[in-house]
Amino acid sequence: MPLGGGPLNTFGTAFRVTILGESHGQVVGCVVDGAPPGLRIGLQDLQRELDRRRPGQSLLTTQRQEADRAEILSGWLDGHATGAPILCIIRNEDKDSSKYAEVAVKPRPGHADYTARLKYEGMSDLRGGGMFSGRLTAALVMAGAIARKLLAPIGIDVAAHTVQVGDVHGGRGMTIRQIRERVEATPVRCADPTAAKRMEQAVLAAREAKDSVGGVVECVAEGVPAGLGEPWFDPVESVLAHLLYAIPAVKGVEFGSGFGAAAMRGSQHNDPFVLRGGRVETATNNAGGILGGITDGMPVVFRVAVKPASSIFLPQATVNLATGKEDTIEIKGRHDPCIVPRAVPVVEAAAAIALADLALRRGLA
Amino acid sequence: MPLGGGPLNTFGTAFRVTILGESHGQVVGCVVDGAPPGLRIGLQDLQRELDRRRPGQSLLTTQRQEADRAEILSGWLDGHATGAPILCIIRNEDKDSSKYAEVAVKPRPGHADYTARLKYEGMSDLRGGGMFSGRLTAALVMAGAIARKLLAPIGIDVAAHTVQVGDVHGGRGMTIRQIRERVEATPVRCADPTAAKRMEQAVLAAREAKDSVGGVVECVAEGVPAGLGEPWFDPVESVLAHLLYAIPAVKGVEFGSGFGAAAMRGSQHNDPFVLRGGRVETATNNAGGILGGITDGMPVVFRVAVKPASSIFLPQATVNLATGKEDTIEIKGRHDPCIVPRAVPVVEAAAAIALADLALRRGLA
Amino acid sequence: MPLGGGPLNTFGTAFRVTILGESHGQVVGCVVDGAPPGLRIGLQDLQRELDRRRPGQSLLTTQRQEADRAEILSGWLDGHATGAPILCIIRNEDKDSSKYAEVAVKPRPGHADYTARLKYEGMSDLRGGGMFSGRLTAALVMAGAIARKLLAPIGIDVAAHTVQVGDVHGGRGMTIRQIRERVEATPVRCADPTAAKRMEQAVLAAREAKDSVGGVVECVAEGVPAGLGEPWFDPVESVLAHLLYAIPAVKGVEFGSGFGAAAMRGSQHNDPFVLRGGRVETATNNAGGILGGITDGMPVVFRVAVKPASSIFLPQATVNLATGKEDTIEIKGRHDPCIVPRAVPVVEAAAAIALADLALRRGLA
Amino acid sequence: MPLGGGPLNTFGTAFRVTILGESHGQVVGCVVDGAPPGLRIGLQDLQRELDRRRPGQSLLTTQRQEADRAEILSGWLDGHATGAPILCIIRNEDKDSSKYAEVAVKPRPGHADYTARLKYEGMSDLRGGGMFSGRLTAALVMAGAIARKLLAPIGIDVAAHTVQVGDVHGGRGMTIRQIRERVEATPVRCADPTAAKRMEQAVLAAREAKDSVGGVVECVAEGVPAGLGEPWFDPVESVLAHLLYAIPAVKGVEFGSGFGAAAMRGSQHNDPFVLRGGRVETATNNAGGILGGITDGMPVVFRVAVKPASSIFLPQATVNLATGKEDTIEIKGRHDPCIVPRAVPVVEAAAAIALADLALRRGLA
Asked: Which of B361, B336, B333 is nearest to B346 (CA)?
């Protein structure tokens, strides 16, 4: 057996989320611990977010059919949290593991097949990607829905949208109101209508080519009170990035000016403090709402780079671990040509969870 | 008093680092807990890295004069770790807090003055930036030096270099050997000699203009065994990004292809598995050595965006918190026009600490 | 809402157990994270221990009828752990919450009704004691069964027995073999046959008097390798006591000589080192197998004081929180006159979990 | 190197204490993280408690001469906590390691010499007991002094006293006021004057016989608000016992009725709820102020069994690890014939730290 034990699957200090389940197992679920007793939670709160993440919504996504019905099995009574751990699950229905037998010996490029095999010495559940499947983000989405309920009374709101697909760039720096008005109008979840159209075409072109395409999701949190975050070693960026990087396919995370800051001078980048309606704000927001790892009261803004989905239908070079020879794999099954649109509610969920944890650590909920 | 207590300043699960001290207090230091008993550590191991981070090395850096002599006060006997917590300190000498009085009422744009004041209700040590000062990265560097000693017998080596300053880009994707040969030859720590010269000029131009300039540091870890990282929620990217974002001025972190992945197709991005000398490797390394959050045996590669130093000598708009009116601040003192070169050993230290923690969690040290 | 969030219900560092569910909710369960991939686990392993804890086994226990069928919903494939979190549940069946309405306003002496109400501001699930019910120890027992599977290949075995009920004392200091031979022969789970008979009478007398009676459980762990435990602050005693005190009704925990050590001289108490078959052992075991917080290779021995069950059928004085006046409560329902016999498998489970965590932290599994 | 890394030496969730240093190293100290910014702390607060723990106070204690001067090196400015980690140290002066050479090969019965050697593979600092020395409780005492400052404004006060030495029992169940009036009047720190005299004689008799003697310390915390403690798995008993068992020589911990509960009936043990001055209290306090793991507003009462000091001056049987033969050791040096009196301030410190953590987790400080 590998040393050091199996993996540890809990995130958070005060608002704690444990992910469990497998793509083709009985359930996908989460345990949320730390939700304040009395917090109102409806099954529809979870369902609404699950429905946004659910597959089969358009031609841009996988055709796997799953009802993804949220159930809460503990910690919940008469529509409110009781203070005990909340177990949320969805049951897996449309499972067809037959196509995954090949994967055990011929790891798919870009997937966790190879590393999972090494780490778990062949003992992990590889069916449908097992615990590495993007399907487990449904659990994040349920936990995120609970986090949102906790954030709402504090005045914190979170919204994300697609700002890049392939080489198509959409407008950045929108307010939540602007995002909300338009994000669900297009299957790519881009709040910039012109770009959205072209993004859609980019996805369909990739799909046509039996290929996939990547993109960037931008997320904004408004109403975040100043003072969240713990320097050395829980700055807001660290806590958010930690959780965001747990989302499969994320390759980059940047805050405010992000990598653009590298090309700037301090005089451009520093956000001057100004008074607005008697309140201290900053004139610009290159900081992304965070100074010294601590929120400054401005919107928290970050972007997440999502790689092109690893499951493509072109033949790919791999190594056959049974024969010890180089080989080729052709992936079958139902897969998203672009996971960016479905990543949007997942990124929102991650942001909500991380902010709920930071807020709870400051006694704000 | 603020609710939820003060900040918690410890990183790591098995190899644990606590940062302590202040820029103008008595000491800056760290406690390293989890170093295996018997691990050989010399004061010179710490000193070598401290000397690389130390100010006053060239015209490109601040002129603050500090000996930065490493001392180990516990957990260390006859040149080896004993298994007890290791307390490392440097003493602060060249302190001149007079210039910081203004900061208490007129927060500097881009600094933590404002957020620290809110979070700690005026009770934090603001002298020289207190615990938010870049000077505390010296503590990270000492902990990183210990981490390197732990990593060496496993065969893990880490090196970083500057790949961008302002709009000057240098070569990326070098091996550690290539980096080591040239990185210390130029004050900007860029291993690409042509770019290095132009980067140097960019820094001097910013300095001349009483301004500062940002950049990007790339870091490579070679010899990382496959199987490190814990999915949901300690993937390698999460653990590294968590610590990297604790370094002041970091605005972005990306792995492998990073934000470039957004514009790619799956067929380009997926790294094909190949056999090299009987070993399974990948032909390319867009994954940055990490698949499904777990190391795959290829070099771990990431880049860090560093914003232009917030301390510039131009007058800047701020709000006077005493008068409640908009005001102007002119920063005095000794400051780096570009912190990227000094960030290089800090990024290496952070990488070493994060990898040491991941390795120790797998029982590898 | 109370500050600081709800409770956090996870134990362990490397072998982590989260408890969830409520006495009269849908399920009682646990999530076990950290079980090594490949660890063989059968449903019957869980069921065997659940059956030992199950109510309705004799006249000495409550007559609540529950099948307590173990189900594993995740992290488990083909009879082995996969490395993903293991979700185990039992479903609640014989629920009759009608008798608990009174408890919401008239807290039962000795129960958590009053403190739960204060802590959760009336939002906790009080039905059947909710998450405070002794029924949740079924979750511990399932986690303990998994822990035992992990301990077995290391050679660690754990057994407990009743050594006191009321004023009846049974033999102490038995080996696991001696305990196993006789512990299940009597309903009080006392391995000393003479005492067992008298303990049984003590329980029946308490039952007859509509009262309850307390006792002491002794637990032995054999085959524990030397070197487990982390001084400052995870000595073996701390880790075990931490978990043992989470078992409802536990009022005391002592190791080796325990409180008896107070009356001893050092020359009596110190266990001399001797050679036995070439191995270093101690001639006596007042240390209970632990020196300086670290196991010394001798059996780990501890005792747990269990208070008399709080649910008795005599009228008791309480305060009516609705009327704000002193009042009387008469508890109805099905309750154990003595919970000590059913505590035996629970104490074993707690010991197994704590030792599994300590062993896994040392890379032993 | 041993797997799983070295030990981890931090206690607490919100109020976190790391212990560092060695008996004969340069310093003994602690890092306190989580003290609210603005908390008033004076060096004299630390010194007062250190002086109570300090050796050489009477014939009942060791004659090692140490000034034990508290220093605070970080996180402290103008007499208050800044919110950054607080590093407290005392320097070791009266070190004579010559007497400890023998210990490396001939482990002392009852000491950690043998287990430390195994765990750290001979790499630990054995001089004067190293990190296992009772001297490290000075670090706990400093952290406890800071915890007390945090508890005072909440109204929580803590006091301990000796209630047993050898077979001499003193009065139990006193209020803090009663304890304070008399506890420092006698060298044994027993608040019951008649018993104190006889305890003193018991210690002197043990000393005369080149032997040592054990005892019991009782501790009371008054003013503890209802609602502290987290069920499954941080009940108040678990958190307190965890820390108390980290104190060297502790063999038992019991709350309220403790082991006495085993012999009681429920009708005796259950504490009836009553109204006192309009407040809900319990008529008796067998629960020790804790119901269901949560404080109920009554005084928290617990007792700690302290074994006779392991260092005695009689010849003792041991094994010579160099020769592999049974051997004899005669301990030299300066040692306490009874450590119970000096354990009193240490137990108070542990209680204060644990309660500070629980209070901070509830947002009370």
From this structure: B336
SS3 content of chain D, % helix, strand, coil (to 5): 35, 25, 45
Q: Which of C147, C144, C151, C219 is nearest to C183 (CA)?
A: C219
CB contacts, 8 Å: A4 with chain D: 3-4
Query: What's the pLDDT score for residue A95?
Result: 75
Gap between the Cα atoms of B357 and B150, Å rounded: 10
- Which of chain C's residues have a Cβ under 8 Å away from the Cβ of D293? 112, 245-246
Chain D residue whose CA is closest to C10: D233
Task: Tell me how close the Cα of D234 comes to any Cα of chain A, in angstroms.
Answer: 13
**Which chains does A contact via 3+ CB–CB distances below 8 A?**
B, C, D
Residues C165 and A27: their CA atoms lie apart, in Å, by 44
When the pLDDT of each residue in chain C is averaged and rounded to a whole number, the result is 93
**Separation of alpha carbons B218 and A73, rounded Å:** 46
User: Does C265 reach chain D within 8 Å, measured CB to CB?
Assistant: yes
To which residue do tokens 């629960």 refer?
A: D287
Please answer whether residues A172 and A164 qualify as being in contact, where contact means their C-beta atoms are separated by less than 8 angstroms: no
Angle of the A340-361 helix axis to the A137-151 helix axis, nearest 10? 50
* Residues B302, A251: Cα–Cα separation, whole Å: 10
Contacts of C355 (CB under 8 A, 6+ apart): C147, C151, C156, C158, C221, C224, C228, C240, C300
- pLDDT per position as a tens digit, B3-56: 343 447 889 988 999 999 999 999 999 999 999 999 999 999 999 999 999 876
Quick one: pLDDT band at residue C59, thresholds 50, 70, 90? low
What three-state secondary structure class fits D148?
helix
Confidence class for position C100, pLDDT limits 50, 70, 90: confident
Q: Tell me the two tokens of residue C279.
A: 């191995």
Mean pLDDT per 10-residue segment, chain A (365 residues): 54 92 95 94 97 79 79 96 96 79 89 92 86 94 98 98 98 96 94 96 97 98 95 93 97 98 98 96 98 97 98 96 95 89 97 96 84
Low-confidence ranges of chain D (pLDDT < 50): 1-7
- The count of residues in chain A is 365
The tokens of C91 are what? 């479903």
Q: How far is A261 from chain B (nearest CA, A)?
A: 5
What is the helix (H) or strand (E) element at residue B150, kind and residue range?
helix B137-151
Question: Over the stretch D335-364, which tens digit does the pLDDT of each residue have?
Answer: 899 999 999 999 999 999 999 999 998 888
State both tokens at D303.
């007792």
- The sign of the torsion formed by the CA atoms of D346, D347, D349, D350 equals positive
Task: List the beta bridge partners of residue A20.
Answer: A29
| Alpha helices (runs of H) in D135-256, residue ranges in sequence order | 137-151, 176-182, 193-208, 236-244
Please report residues of D whose CB lies closer than 8 A to that of B18.
Answer: 10, 18, 31, 33, 85
Nearest CA in chain B to C5: B4
Fill in the amino acid letter for B330: E
A240 close to A307: Cβ distance less than 8 angstroms: no
C-beta of residue C239 within 8 angstroms of C-beta of residue C184: no
Give the C-alpha distances (Å, rounded to integers) separating A162 from A172, A178, A340, A348: 9, 13, 7, 12
Q: Which amino acid is at D22?
A: E
Burial of B8 (0-12, 13-18, 19+ CB in 10 A): buried
The letter for the amino acid at D162 is T
CA distance A362 to chain B (A): 5
CA dihedral A206, A212, A216, A219 (to 10 degrees): 110
pTM over 0.90: yes
- Work out the end-to-end distance of chain D between its first and last CA atoms, rounded to an integer number of angstroms: 42
User: Rounded to an integer, what distance in angstroms lies between the CA atom of residue B138 and that of residue B346?
Assistant: 8
Token couple for C41: 């686990």
Q: What is the 3-state secondary structure (H, E, C) of B76-103?
A: EECCEECCCCEEEEEECCCCCHHHHHHH
